[in-house]
Amino acid sequence: MKVAALQMVSGVSREANLARAQALLQEAADAGAELAVLPEYFCLMGRQEGDKLALREQSGAGPVQDFLAAQARALGLWIVGGTLPLQAHDDAHVFNSTLVYGPTGACVARYDKIHLFRFDSGLGESYDEARVIAPGREPVCFELQARDGQRWRVGLSVCYDLRFPELYRALARQGADLLLVPAAFTHTTGQAHWEVLLRARAIENLAWVCAAAQGGTHENGRRTWGQSLIADPWGQVLAQRATGEGVVLAELDPARLQQCRHQLPALTHCVL
Length: 272
Description:
Layout: E1 2-7, H1 14-30, E2 35-37, H2 51-54, H3 63-75, E3 78-80, E4 84-87, E5 94-101, E6 107-112, E7 118-120, E8 126-128, E9 133-134, E10 141-145, E11 151-156, H4 165-173, E12 178-180, H5 187-205, E13 208-211, E14 228-231, E15 237-241, E16 246-251, H6 254-263
Parallel strand pairs: 1-2, 2-3, 5-9, 11-12, 12-13
Antiparallel strand pairs: 1-16, 3-5, 4-5, 5-6, 7-8, 10-11, 13-14, 14-15
Helix pairs in contact: 1-3
């Protein structure tokens, strides 16, 4: 199965971001991808954290959800919609949610980001997602049937989740053989840790990893790391894009997954 990680440099206009996402999805479909993964905040990188509140949608209805469903249906793609703001339990917060759409346009899975990013460089760069984002609670996997009939168990995660290996082990215990990581890593933290963490999650869970990132300098002044990549279950990076908008493609071979898990059956050796 060919998969695509879509790298964006999203701005402050939802409509402009959706137009760029549409072009990238079309490029992925034209290249033969069956699964396309958009980055975190693909529909909005606002000027301030509170901008997410103005664009929140109710689960099941809204411009971004309608866009994702229509694109999946029109292109015959499985689409993982990066993240978008969905209504939470109060008016001051939203869930940062990943929605998955099948080729029929039906929404087949939802994951609300569990771990909320907080960082202070001490040099004027600081973030605290909990100010406007409510945390999710449950790990989520979904099943994808490829065009060749192969079934894949796919585990969902978002950005800062990458620092919490227990989440990925929980996904592995649910049978995940492909881990998805839409993200908007800062340039500072991404330069330090992004690739090594992604490769570690692939290696320790003997799973494919597809990470779609924001990558560049945004209208709001934020700088994201990029380096969207696809890694195999041995931790080898098969395809990667440094910065700027683009499509990262790789072929996922189920035989490679089985080979790695047969040679090193570490998942069967877990005792904790």
